Amino acid sequence: MARLDKLSRIAFDALEDVKARDIVVFDVKKMTAYFDKVIVATGDSNRHCRALANNVQVQVKAAGGKIYGVEGERTGEWLLVDIGSTVVHIMQPAIRQYYNLEELWAPAPKVPKAPKSPTAAKEPKPKRVDSKVTNTPGAPKATQVAAATKATKVTKATKATASRKPTARRSAKAA
Q1: In CATH terms, is domain 6-105 a member of 3.40.50.1100?
Q2: Mean predicted confidence (pLDDT) in 95-123
Q3: Percentage above 90 pLDDT, the chain
Q4: Can you spell out the DSSP letters for 78-103?
Q5: Where are the domains of the chain?
Q6: For residue 71, what pLDDT is reported?
Q7: Between helices 46-62 and 6-17, what is the axis angle to 10°?
Q8: DSSP annotation string for 26-88
Q9: Residue 62's pLDDT band (boundaries 50, 70, 90)?
Q10: Which of 38, 106, 149, 172 is the most buried (most CB within 10 A)?
């Protein structure tokens, strides 16, 4: 569990008092600038979720904290209580499983970097001619030169064709 400040601890304890299940706390300071902690808890029914949210509000206000907003009180399936530096999500099991906030707010696993191979620095970088790699390992120099020459000829032929004006179309329009 992440280290909790005073109001976050009060919200956590308020959830435990009314028997919330699967309470998880995430430290999200590095992920967002809007709040520092996210608390996710599960309630068994609409009435239970509303009671959890109500208890969080009562306990935070009693401790001198401010409630900035509450969402979802009408349906009771997913309630959100904003107490400033902490946002409390209270959800029914099906909603919690569907939205999977744990995956959204959990820190990404650290992936070790692959070591650089010692041969990678020794291999020559391939030369590109007309979007084709011509410096294949073991290819003779003559093949590379021929490929470069062929690419140049194709480019000149394409330009010559593009510059010709279609005479048949012009004469058909004039008539």
Answers
A1: no
A2: 73
A3: 43
A4: EEEEE-SSEEEEEE-HHHHHHH-HHH
A5: 6-105, 128-174
A6: 94
A7: 140
A8: EE-TTT-SS-SEEEEEE-SSHHHHHHHHHHHHHHHHHTT----EEE-TTT-SEEEEE-SSEEE
A9: very high
A10: 38
